[in-house]
Amino acid sequence: xxxxxxxxDDSDQVADxxxxxxxxxxxxxxxxxxxxxxxxRQTIAVEEPxxxxxxxxxxxxxxxxxxxxxQAAARAQSEWETTTAHERATVISExxxxxxxxxxxxxxxxxxxxxxVRGKARSELNSLDAIxxxxxxxxxxxxxxxxxxxxxxxxxxxxxxxVGVVGIITPWNFPFHLSMRVVxxxxxxxxxxxxxxxxxxxxxxxxxIARAFEEAGLPAGLVNVVTGDxxxxxxxxxxxxxxRMISFTGSSxxxxxxxxxxxxxxxxxELELGGNNVHIVTENADLDWAVDTGVFGSFTHQxxxxxxxxxxxxxxxxxxxxxxxxxxxxxxLPIGDPHEHDTVVGPIINEQQRDKIVEFIAQSNERGAVxxxxxxxxxxxxxxxxxxxxxxxxxxxxxxxxxPVAPVIPYESESEALAIANDTRYGLSGSVHSTxxxxxxxxxxxxxxxxxxxNDQPLNDDPNTPFGGVGASGLxxxxxxxxxxxxxxxxxxxxxxxxxxxxx
Length: 504
Hints:
The chain is α/β, with parallel strands linked by helices. Helices cover 38% and strands 20% of the residues. It contains 15 helices and 22 strands.
């Protein structure tokens, strides 16, 4: 019998009760500026992870729905790209202010849809606000530049034009931020979007964004939200001939297929996929500092973040002390209802994900890993878990566990730490702790990853800094000028001001 017992108050509030909901309710698609009710379409229940209560329904979008959305986006985009940078930035600014005014209802939705505790919800709102602010500025970076030419009297311009229509598929863990990080810069640079949010978080991942831009006065057709499952609706979004870019955030397995299908349609694939991120603690580390960051990096949002710490790689000289401190801290983290103010660890998103986490722990324990604390669960609540005596081939270490699990692996030498860290197909993010900065920088340089943070933890996502990974962690980069390059086509325009001499 489980030792863990979590009490959750059932709420009779449903998503349609929120003041931000459209008058027709959320059980609809948002296409060409209209909320289209589900009608006779198949629907999917949206359930609260903490209680299992149904908070709403969404329709499963058909291939015809997706086609209608893309057609609307293409029509609207042809006019939108002719607007001024000021007009585009102003609409994004208006939507940003509207979202700020919805804070309390959005915090409720974060808990209800994705099991986000209040601290995580506020963090996601802050990151989204920053993304929108940076996106406003991107509208003014479309002019391109002049280049010198080896040919006399030739004027060369390199211009940036919007790609046109962008297809977007986003996950459930940071639904608001991960959708807006594409939608806002896409609109700022003169594009239109068709967005398919995860079916578990359709409101924050799609509908709320549509409502905010609707209220901000964005012309119809520029933002379209088609809800549904990955197989039917998602496939239609990816395989359609209209989009010139497909943005996908999710698992590496699905991302591989999405990328291949996008390329088949000559669309740019922008992929942010899985991670097996490391937290390397050297013999020279400040342990107080390293443990603080280790707790935050492993247990924030129940570890359900692509850039969470997946492996703690700790020098043998400080290993035992680090394990003890990390375990003691994990035991103090309040587990419970994400709606409550003092909760730090909320529920896992669904039973399938919970079962995978629990299985990884059990299999690793059978192979010699020691469960120092945690390992138990109640419904969808999994205890913050620390495992010692872990080796790289154990399931908790060689897989992305996506849960509140901290496997701690010992190492003897710097070369061994790097060998362990780089023994993965992933390369998204990581962190290194050492008071010897030359040592930390050396390790950071050798880590095969798209991002690495010295004397911090991997949960960093700055709105103006390139975000993305290598290997099975994806292709391309998000944020700031990096996403600007993905959302625009480069065009060379030359002007020959005087006749030139030709050889014949």
